[in-house]
Amino acid sequence: MSQNKKTKQIYVGIFAIILASGFLFGCEQIQSMFQPSLASSKAASPALKQEAGDQVQGTVLAKVNGDVITLESFEEKIKALEALDPGIKIKSSDEKKGFLNDLITQELVVQEAKARGIDKKKEVRDAIDDFRNSAFARQLIMDETKGITVEPSEIEAFYKQYKKEFAAPEELRVREIVASSEATAKEILIALLQGGDFAALAKERSISGSASKGGDLGFVKPGDKFENFDKAVWSLDQGQVSPIFKGPDGFYIVKIEDKKGGVVPAMSEVYDQIKAGLLQQKQAERIKGLTDKLKSDAKIEIKEDLLR
Question: How far apart are CA 87 and CA 273, in angstroms?
């Protein structure tokens, strides 16, 4: 099993479930950034409405047309933004003033949109419903998978079983000589066995397009050429020259100049990768168990004829 296939198997389950439920990792932070930052007189929570006699919960930082930004919500949004991008830091007074100005601008745009009735449009309300449902699904998955852990022994066992799959694919730097006849190839091979320079003979006698480069094909991987080529090169050690073999353009002789890849990384190098993969696999299994139960307990009716 290749590393890519194994990695895909580990990760695909949880991603499929997440996408099926309509949310992406991090939407909680994204939601906190793009939700109205201020208390709208029409849509804010009761605690933040600026209606007669109402008290705002928190420290008032700014007001925009009577709607309030609290210091607490402002600081929460900074934390959310910094969590999304560790490169972003809002620490200085000027940086905070700039961010507050952005929030004020955002709220003015939201207020204007509502004044124009945009919040009543069907496509907008549908988008809000979709986002709300995604938030519900995300929170359910967070609650359901809370407390799932991966033990060091599980990571070690996985590494021992699949450590070869973490190695980069082995590649060989190959030179080739292609002759039009077996007799010519035999003459070239004899010259090589007598100490002839492979690159020089390739330039002089090979009929391949690689002749001008001394037969140098660069680094190749299994499957780059043809079956007989793979059989020949992958049975050789560095510096060795192959016997003659038949190929699509004639009779081939190859030499291995260099090798790279194929080195298995230490467990410490892939420890976090394995841990994350196993954790997500466990989460996927937990969520699949939940969704299977929900389906078995539910009454579901589908009119498949409408799907034709």
Answer: 23
